[in-house]
Design a protein that fits this description.
Layout: E1 14-16, E2 27-28, E3 37-38, E4 42-44, E5 50-51, H1 68-78, E6 115-117, E7 122-124, H2 150-179, H3 190-203, E8 215-222, E9 233-239, H4 244-254, E10 271-275, E11 280-281, H5 288-291, E12 297-302
Parallel strand pairs: 8-12
Antiparallel strand pairs: 1-4, 2-3, 4-5, 6-7, 8-9, 10-11, 10-12
């Protein structure tokens, strides 16, 4: 019968077989000249043979595959693991750090996303994401071309917008002349302007809840060289008490122009309203009734910068 393992024997090169592994009457030792019946025999892990208590070790039964079990165990322990753990981000192994010189927060991690500033082209943590928090106005945008300061680029954009405004104003006047009937009143006469306004009021669309006495009727356009619109022009009326920002949102929706003003970002993607007759960009907080009159034309422009008064001469 099998008994406890004597001291000095290797307890790992063989295992005791359970009752379920043998027949009800036990198993015979496979050692030559032994064949002892053992109800709880031992199994050699190298040659997979069945032996009694006296011949359970590899030396006792002269195992034909002596050491096979030890070699397989050693090779298994030396095999490198296929799963590698990702080290915790730190200053030593993580290059993405908040661009603010006074901040050491690691960004673009599962817990701390990075916020890109479109003006200076840098990445910041949530605390320093605002332009005022990282002194954006004092930074040179990454990737900016050398030579040419932000002031010079702003003046160049201002000149371009001034020239565009002057040409647009002339185009509006020319269009008014062409639409006037030859036998009718002169293009700039009060009668011609009244006829054009009456035609505008008949075709303009807007919120029917707006009282007639509080309506301002405008020609609305989307500049083809700065944005893409499904409907490039339209005639609409708005409440004189509404802000320019609200008018911009409504006009962009009506002309189906992509409007990303509420998503943040820089001026290159921001929409603004240009008042043709006034020759300037309108501020979002201005009341439309105080800056525009019925019959005026406003144009949606993208990437033209903040409002600067008096872009074109009267």
């Amino acid at each position: 019968m099998a008994s406890a393992t004597p001291p000095g024997d290797d307890p790992q090169s063989y295992t005791t077989m359970s009752v379920g592994d043998v027949e009800a009457i036990g198993a015979h030792c496979q050692m030559a000249f032994c064949h002892q019946l053992d109800f709880l025999p031992f199994k050699c892990e190298s040659c997979k043979g069945t032996f009694c208590l006296d011949h359970r070790s590899e030396t006792a039964h002269k195992c034909t595959k002596a050491g096979a079990w030890a070699r397989s165990r050693r090779e298994a322990s030396q095999t490198p693991s296929t799963t590698t753990s990702t080290p915790k981000p730190s200053i030593l192994n993580h290059e993405q750090q908040c661009s603010s010189p006074v901040c050491k927060t690691l960004i673009n991690t599962p817990l701390t996303p990075g916020i890109h500033c479109a003006d200076c082209n840098r990445q910041y943590c949530l605390k320093h994401r605002m332009r005022e928090e990282h002194d954006c106005s004092k930074l040179t945008p990454l990737g900016a071309r050398p030579g040419g300061t932000s002031k010079e680029r702003g003046l160049a954009a201002l000149d371009k917008l001034r020239a565009w405004g002057a040409s647009k104003k002339a185009a509006v006047s020319e269009t008014a002349k062409k639409t006037t009937i030859t036998s009718g009143p002169k293009p700039n006469s009060p009668a011609a302007r009244a006829a054009a306004i009456n035609n505008l009021k008949k075709t303009a669309k807007g919120d029917a809840k707006t009282p007639p006495e509080k309506r301002v009727y405008l020609h609305v356009e989307a500049s083809a060289d700065t944005t893409t619109a499904k409907y490039p022009t339209g005639k609409f009326f708005y409440n004189v008490e509404w802000s320019v920002g609200r008018i911009l949102d409504m006009a962009a929706k009506d002309l189906q122009v992509e409007n990303v003003n509420n998503r943040g970002g820089g001026e290159k993607d921001r929409l603004r309203i240009f008042h043709v007759e006034g020759g300037r960009l309108l501020d979002f907080s201005e009341k439309i009734g105080k800056v525009c009159q019925t019959g005026n034309t406003i144009v949606l422009l993208r990437g033209v910068g903040p409002p600067v008064p008096d872009l074109i001469e009267a």
